[in-house]
Amino acid sequence: TYIVPALYTFGIIQIFVSLQLENIMKNRQVIILTAAGLISFLCMAIQGVATDGWIVTILHEKNVSLGSTVKRMGQVVGTLFSYNALILLGKWKVSGYRVFNPFDCLMIFGCFSIVIGLILHCFRKEEHQEEENKSLSLIHI
User: How many C-beta neighbours within 10 Å does residue 7 have?
Assistant: First the structure.
C-alpha cells in the first residue's frame, strides 16, 4: 500500500526539518523549507487517499458506510493531540524554559509517523491479494 511509505517519508522529513530548522531559518533557505513542506503535504495527501481505500477493505460490508465517520474521528483525535496537547504546551515554561518548542513538535510528529508506519508494516498484512489472484485465475481460464 501507499500508507506505510508515505508515513516513513513524512516522518523522515519531519525529523530532518526538526534537526535543521534553526540552520534553515538562520540561513534563510526558503527553498529547502518549501520543498520539505510540499513533500510533507504530498505524503499526507497520498496517505489520506490510501486510508480511504483501506477503510473499505478493513470494515465488514454492513459497516463500510461508517468509514468516513471512523476517519473523521481519527482526524479529530489527531487535531486534539497535535494542536491542543503539543502546541499549547509550548506556551508553558518550567524554570524559564519552554516545555515544547517547534523543533520538539516536529520531532514528535516525525517519530510518531515512523512508529505508526512500523506497526502497520509489521503487524498488518493485506488480505485482498489472495482474492485478486483468485479472480485473475478465473479470467485466464
Answer: 26
